[in-house]
Amino acid sequence: MANLSKWFFCFLVSITVIVAAVGREISDGEEARREADRVTNLPGQPQVRFQHYAGYVKLGPQNQRALFYWFFEAKEDASQKPLVLWLNGGPGCSSVAYGAAQELGPFLVRGNGTQLILNKYSWNKAANMLFLEAPVGVGFSYTNNSEDLYKLGDKVTAEDSHTFLINWFKRFPNFKSHDFYIAGESYAGHYVPQLAELIYERNKGATKSSYINLKGFMIGNAVINDETDSAGIVDYAWSHAIISDQLYHNIKQCDHQESVTNECVVHYRGFAEAYSDIDIYSIYTPVCLSEYSTRSSSRLVVAPRLLSKLHDLVHNLPSGYDPCTEGYAEKFFNREDVQKALHANVTKLSYPYTTCSNAIRKWNDSAETILPIIQKLLNAGLRIWIYSGDTDGRVPVTSTRYSINKMELKVNEEWRAWFHKSQVAGWVETYERGLVLATVRGAGHQVPVFAPQQSLSLFSHFLSAKTLPASSSSIGRVSKADFELTGDVLAQQEADRVIRLPGLPEVTFKQYAVMEELCFIGFFYAIENPEEKPFLICLNGGD
């Protein structure tokens, strides 16, 4: 009996040693993969002190499908900062090409895809930022089975994103205990809450290795409820004098009809035509007239569920803001040296990199409303903020307000202005169970593009669960440090330089243009000896 007990004890010790060895081998393997994902030679990258990583995370043991990510550690105190997953919408648009490279990442693509500049208001000032291209078929994310491209939809995207996170945390276990948040914009109004709900449900039966420390989410100009989204887009166009009284009345009449008549099709197309010469995603800014421009109205007609009655008449294509930088981003990520530096396109995709996917063949499921999920997760205690750039006509603030009103939540703090640097940055209202609605004044669909400082402030307040400033009293004084010519400032200065302006005569002096806060600034060097000439500020007035 003693010998049997000794044998059994030895057996248990052996099993323990084997399991520990296997676990160590897996850990060592993931550590090697993490180190292989480190980005060290990105062409044109300004010098930085933080680490960033890019590469693939496989979704299954057969290695048939993988999602591409780009991860930036926080600029300072990365070990103490939360981890935030950023998702762009579409469906089918890239979080790397949009979120990371054009909006809120530390490096912004400029110069026709040949230059990277430092983003002074990158969100990795406040958090560790993870950008994911999902589902397969988006950006560099791939599948080796073309049939998968016909099976995509909201559910597949949520499942694959959850699997990605489980496997990503194995590669980056040092971030597993961090507070985890999800953020996104546009159709990510589906992606973000759906993924949050999936994590919440899976956490109930999760093991230590599969548990995700989810704390909340934040969505901007978000598609969350078809009925109110459709009503809001029409009301916004009318209230901003983009469509006539008659067209507004005609569309409203059509929306109450059971079937779509030919006459209503004419009215809907008239609505699209009203945006033919302006950008629906930012109604007050100039449209891009470069060779890379895609006129927003052409995508407006085919955008998913633009108007509920028109949806079934037209072919679905992804929707997303289309500034000139979209073309620059595509050119940048199609460069072989960039792909090599980011460990991307390892399977040599048969199609070029695009900001919004042309490879996705079908979108099989798209919930008509996300409001029940938001209600459920509010009840579960998650922190949820919804923000809206108020010059976006595609998913306008009217749609967002109508959607939130539909939840019939009690208002805890009435509508009021919030401030950034002594200026009104937008308006905010707080509801029961902590839901916050904040607008960003003067910002279009991609809020960080148009209001980088305000969006970073909004993001930081969300992460810290602090109330947005109610007055300008919290503004600090200008210090000498604000005028020091650091590397960041010099890089931004060069990015603001005007090189090619249509119709510009050839000149020998330098000129710059920049949008700061809500002011547009044009600056011209003196024609000769600028360092010796006085500095003059010219201001125009008005009634």
Topology summary:
Layout lengths: L1 H36 L14 E7 L6 E8 L10 E5 L7 H9 L3 E4 L4 E4 L9 E6 L8 E2 L10 H18 L8 E6 L2 H16 L10 E7 L5 H14 L5 H11 L6 H13 L21 H7 L22 H9 L2 H6 L29 H9 L3 E7 L7 H10 L4 E10 L2 E9 L4 E5 L6 H4 L1 H13 L22 H9 L15 E6 L2 E6 L19
Parallel strand pairs: 3-6, 3-8, 8-9, 9-10, 10-13
Antiparallel strand pairs: 1-2, 2-6, 2-7, 4-5, 11-12, 12-13, 14-15
Protein name: Carboxypeptidase
GO cellular component, one term: extracellular region
GO biological process, one term: proteolysis
Can you put this structure into words, describing what you see?
With 543 residues, the protein is an alpha/beta fold. It has a domain at 480-539. It is built from 15 helices and 15 strands. The strands form three sheets. Strands 1, 2, 3, 6, 7, 8, 9, 10, 11, 12 and 13 form an eleven-stranded mixed β-sheet that branches. A two-stranded antiparallel sheet has the order 4-5. Helix 2 (95-103) crosses helix 9, helix 4 (188-203) packs across helix 11 (371-379) and helix 5 (226-239) crosses helix 12 (397-406). Residues 15-26, 294-322 and 474-483 have low confidence and may be disordered. Keywords: Carboxypeptidase, Disulfide bond, Glycoprotein, Hydrolase, Protease, Secreted, Signal. Residues 1-23 form the signal peptide. It is found in: Secreted. One of its GO terms (biological process) is proteolysis.
